[in-house]
Amino acid sequence: MLIWHVSCIKRTETQKDHQTVSVIMRSMGAIDYPVRRPPLRGNVNLFEQILLAVLAGFFIFGLTLAGAFLATRLWYAGRVLPGVSIAGVDVGGLSPHAAAARLVERIDYPHSGKIILRDGERVWVATPGELGLSLDPDASAQAAFRVGRSGPLPGRIKAQVEAMTSGIQLPPVLVLDQRVAYRFLSNIAREIDKPAIDATLSLNGTQVVVTPGQTGRSLDISASLVLITLQLQSLRDGILDLYIHEAAPVILDASAEADLARRILSEPLVLSLPGAEANSAGPWTIQPEQLAQMLTVQRVDTPQGPSYQVGLRQDLMIAYLADLAPKLQRYPQNARFIFNDDTHQLEVIQPSITGRQLDVEKSLRLIQEKIRQGEHAIPLEVMYTDPPVTDKMTGEQLGITELVQATTTYFRGSSSERKQNIRAAAARFHGLLVAPGETFSMAQALGDITLDNGFAEALIIIGGQTIKGVGGGVCQVSTTLFRNVFFAGFPVVERYAHAYRVGYYEQTANGHSDRLAGLDATVFVPLVDFKFTNDTPYWLLMETYVSDTSITWKFYSTKDGRTVEWNTTGPVNRVPPPEPVYRENPDLAKGEIRQVDWAAEGADVTVERTVYKNGAVYFKDTFFTHYEAWANVYEYGPGTELPPPDERR
């Protein structure tokens, strides 16, 4: 609780001292008196008379003042001296009780005054009393009563004289209960105070929802209380602007990013291949509904401070692009050639293909960048890889200058389906190149053997039996490649023989030869492969040519002086075919018998090869083959009568 009690009693100048008398006394002390001075006797008496008169005057004046002071004290005993006022209210001649009553009656500022507190256009009006201000009439009356009655005597006399001559104005004694003002300001604070709230940005389906930020405001009660106190001390009405602290939110406005989000969702996002390839695949369209699920709002730090940033979710876009990547994957492929035996030049039969791969990371960055620029048609970032051999390369550059080996195998008696498969498989290798030092995989170059890839159903050997399956006859092609590699002197890395001897692989141009037994190779993609290595410093060109009864495989490169010698044991350890096998086939009619497998003699064959280079042994290898004895297999319809055992062959 504050109590103001400001004394405003005026003080007059002190009475003049007795300088003149002192001067006179000093002057008298400076006179020389001669030994004989009888004539001056009269002057001395005169001075003494004057001095006595002055002293008597002062004495009389003092008695008069004392009398007047005592008379005033006696006359106004128990009452305020005349001429004393409090805040313009004359209380002279009144007892303290009466003076207090008059002050209560006349001073009504605490109840009638107006203090207007303002915050912008909002105002709150309060009386001083509502802000905790009250008059202390008793203390004010006592202050007036003490005028001329307290302090040293000269001061009391002076105050009495001043009160009776010019009057004395005293301020009232006021009491300010700051707790009341604090409560009043606290109520105002409930209306003013609000927290700083960041703007928000979110999505509801394809709808963009944005709320603006709110600036925080809080009333500074302590500073405003000081302001009110100073105003109340003036005992005047006033308009006071309250002290308000404002706190800006971290993000005040998200409208720009909200507009961007609306533009992003305004139409589909279309991704395409760049440039001339735009029509080779795609485009790929992401509709606004799907785009909204990918859209994200992130809080980011920028040089201007935190803000929202609209973009596409990285994880979802990466997943989308990763799913798209295999569809755009294109491996680089060398050009395919044939060797012109007349000009000794290469002729392009299939142009090279530039490899293509989707750059997911760069595409993601580009999409994020372009979509923030309001674009909806965005080309993907693609990496291109040239193949080792392009269309422009020549035989001299590749080291393909001559025929180094050609081998022909025969397949007289093959079905049309088997011939179709031989042609389809051989075409995969026509014009194909093998790089220097490369280990060539036939299965990889052959690819999937399916009806869609031009293959037909024919007899194949699988699971210890001959059955009908897609690709029957492909082993005629693998056998031809094996023999060409064998006779050209290249190292064989992987080779598998057939389970039993197949007559096709022992045919010659004019008949049949047991010396070709053990020189077959089977391929069953992707489990069984044939591989060899081009161990020369030159590229190797393969050409395949298929007639109605034969297939020829050619190697073109540059001869390095190698030659081949070989020998074979021929079929040894021969085992006769087992008894014929008959099994029922519900798809056959009664009485119908059909042979589905043919007997073959079991045997072992060992083939040895020596490869020379410029007359010196380069390497040796051995190929051992074990053939199972194979029975004739027949299928018959239900209810069919089988021939007697002794007639079965």
From TrEMBL:
This is YoaR-like putative peptidoglycan binding domain-containing protein. The lineage of its organism: Bacteria, Bacillati, Chloroflexota, Anaerolineae, Anaerolineales. It holds the Pfam family VanW. It comes from Anaerolinea thermolimosa. The chain crosses the membrane at residues 50-76. It comes from the Bacteria. Residues 124-228, 309-375 form the YoaR-like putative peptidoglycan binding domain. Keywords: Membrane, Transmembrane, Transmembrane helix. InterPro entries: Glycopeptide_resist_protein, Vancomycin_resist_VanW, YoaR-like_PG-bd.
